[in-house]
TrEMBL record:
Highest taxon of the lineage: Eukaryota
Protein name (Swiss-Prot/TrEMBL): Carboxylic ester hydrolase
Family: Belongs to the carbohydrate esterase 1 (CE1) family.
A biological-process GO annotation: xylan catabolic process
Keywords tagged on the record: Carbohydrate metabolism, Glycoprotein, Hydrolase, Polysaccharide degradation, Secreted, Serine esterase, Signal
Enzyme class: hydrolase
Source species of the chain: Sordaria macrospora (strain ATCC MYA-333 / DSM 997 / K(L3346) / K-hell)
C-alpha cells in the first residue's frame, strides 16, 4: 500500500513537473489564458493551447476566429488541439477580439500598417511572445483563420511577412480589400468587398499588400509566406469572386502563375488550383460549399510541414 501511494505520488509529481513547459509555467493539455504578452494596443485577449510533453523548439500556429466568434470557440471548432496532442510539435494561439461584433480590424489604416498600433500589432506581439516563451523555431510560425480570421491571415502576412512562413485560411478576402471601410463586420463594413465587387488586377492588389509593410517595395529582406486559401463556390456571404482576387494578389506577390487544376482534391467536389509547382500558392475551390469552408486541420498541418 505504502509502495503504491509512493509510486502514485511520484507519478503525480512527474506529471506536474511535465506540465510546466513554458518559462512562466503555462499549463499544458488544456486551453489557458495568457495575461501579458506585451504591448496590446487594441486590448485583445489571448488563450493558448500547449500539448503535454511539448517537443523542444516547437512551431507556433496563430488561429483566428470568424466574426462573432472567440478564441475558445474556434479552438473547439477547428480541431487542431487533438493533432497537437498527437504530434507535440506545435502550440496554438487563439486570440479573441471583442470589438466590431468580434471581427478583426482589416479596414483601418492603423491595422493595415505594420507597427501602427492596430489589431495587427497586438497579434504580432502575441506571436513574438510565444516564440520567446517556448523557444519556438522562428522559421515555423503559421497563421490560419476562418472568414474574418482568413481576411486577417492575409493582412498579417502583408504586415508581418517576416514573422510567418505559411498561411492556410478559409473563406476570406485579399489583404486590403476592406481598406477605408468604416468597419469590418457584416453590419459595419462597406459591403463592396464581401459582395465580391472589389476587383483589381494582380499588380494593383500586390501594390496594396506590399504597402502594408511600410515601403512601396514591400518585404525585400526575405520571402513572403506561402499561401493556401480555401473558398466555397456557394458562398454568398463573403462571395466566391474573393477567391480569384486573393489568388491574383498572391500570384503577383509570390511570382508564380497558374499551372493546373487537380479535381476532387483533397476530397470529392474540391478543386486544387495550383500555381507554379504548388509549393508557394494553392487555392481550393469547394463545389456546393457555402460560408465557411470547414477547417481541414490535417491539410493545414501538411501545408505547414508539420
Ligand atoms: C480551375 O478551377 C477553378 C475552380 O473550379 C475554375 O474557376 C477555373 O476556371 C479552372 N481553370 C481551368 C483552366 O480549368
Amino acid at each position: 500500500m505504502v509502495r503504491t501511494s509512493l509510486l502514485t505520488y511520484l507519478a503525480l509529481g512527474l506529471g506536474s513537473t511535465a506540465v510546466l513547459a513554458s518559462k512562466c509555467g503555462v499549463a499544458t493539455g488544456s486551453l489557458q489564458p495568457v495575461a501579458n504578452f506585451g504591448e496590446n494596443p487594441t486590448g485583445l485577449d489571448l488563450q493558448i493551447y500547449v500539448p503535454k510533453n511539448l517537443a523542444p523548439n516547437p512551431a507556433v500556429i496563430l488561429a483566428l476566429h470568424y466574426c462573432g466568434g472567440t478564441g475558445p470557440l474556434y479552438s473547439q471548432q477547428s480541431n487542431y488541439n487533438p493533432l497537437a496532442d498527437a504530434r507535440r510539435n506545435f502550440v496554438i494561439l487563439y486570440p479573441s477580439t471583442t470589438h466590431d461584433n468580434n471581427c478583426w480590424d482589416v479596414a483601418s489604416s492603423k491595422s493595415l500598417t505594420r507597427d501602427a498600433g492596430g489589431d495587427t500589432t497586438s497579434l504580432a506581439n502575441m506571436v513574438r511572445w510565444a516564440i520567446d516563451e517556448y523557444d519556438a523555431d522562428p522559421s515555423k510560425v503559421f497563421v490560419t483563420g476562418s472568414s474574418s480570421g482568413c481576411m486577417m491571415s492575409n493582412v498579417m502576412a502583408a504586415t508581418y511577412p517576416d514573422l510567418f512562413s505559411a498561411v492556410s485560411c478559409y473563406s476570406g478576402v485579399p489583404a486590403g480589400c476592406l481598406a477605408g471601410s468604416p468597419g469590418a463586420s457584416p453590419t459595419t463594413a462597406d459591403p463592396t468587398c464581401a459582395n465580391g465587387d472589389n476587383r483589381k488586377t494582380g499588380p494593383e492588389w500586390a501594390a496594396l499588400l506590399k504597402g502594408m509593410y511600410g515601403t512601396p517595395e514591400g518585404y525585400t529582406e526575405g520571402q513572403y509566406p506561402k499561401v493556401q486559401t480555401w473558398h466555397g463556390e456557394a458562398d454568398f456571404f463573403v462571395n466566391y469572386p474573393n477567391l480569384a482576387e486573393q489568388l491574383k494578389q498572391w500570384s503577383e506577390v509570390l511570382g508564380v502563375s497558374f499551372s493546373k487544376n487537380e479535381t476532387d482534391t483533397p476530397q470529392s467536389g474540391y478543386t486544387k488550383i495550383v500555381y507554379g509547382d504548388g509549393s508557394k500558392l494553392v487555392g481550393y475551390s469547394a463545389r456546393g460549399v457555402g460560408h465557411t469552408v470547414p477547417v481541414h486541420p490535417e491539410a493545414d498541418l501538411q501545408w505547414f510541414g508539420l
